Amino acid sequence: MCPQKITLGELRSSGVRGLLIYCADYRCSRSTVISADRWPDHVRLSDLEPKFTCKACGHRGADVRPLFAVDKPASGYPAHG
Ligand SMILES: [Zn+2]
């Protein structure tokens, strides 16, 4: 499955509450984390990508990835990277 086709409703149903936004300019690669709560369930990640403008370099467009829960320590689950 292409992750860009995933809707926010599907992400929320799998426990994702936030989104990682990466600057689409690889020379900048600034990233930030935002809450996904502000958009309705039918919105896809690919719908959001053109909406972002990088605050660091002003580049329009971003890579949007689901932010899987990292705030709870997962015992027995090694964290790589
Ligand atoms: Zn940037």
Would you give an account of this structure?
The chain is 12% helix and 21% strand. The protein is an alpha+beta fold. The chain has a three-stranded antiparallel beta sheet with strand order 2-1-3. A hairpin with a 7-residue loop joins strand 1 and strand 2. The chain starts with 7 loop residues before the first helix and ends in a 14-residue tail after the last strand. Bound molecules: zinc ion. Residues 23, 25, 28, 30, 54, 56-57, 59 line the site of zinc ion.
The gist of it:
This protein has 2 helices and 3 strands.
Q: What are the distinct ligands in this entry? A: zinc ion
How much strand content do the residues show? Answer: 15-25%
**Uncertain stretches:** none
Q: What is the CA–CA distance across the termini?
A: 23 Å
Going by helix content, strand content and strand pairing, the class is alpha+beta
Keywords:
81 residues; 3 strands; alpha+beta; single chain
Secondary structure: elements and pairs:
Elements: H1 8-13, E1 18-23, E2 31-35, H2 45-48, E3 62-67
Antiparallel strand pairs: 1-2, 1-3
The protein binds zinc ion.
Zinc ion (ZN) binds next to loops.
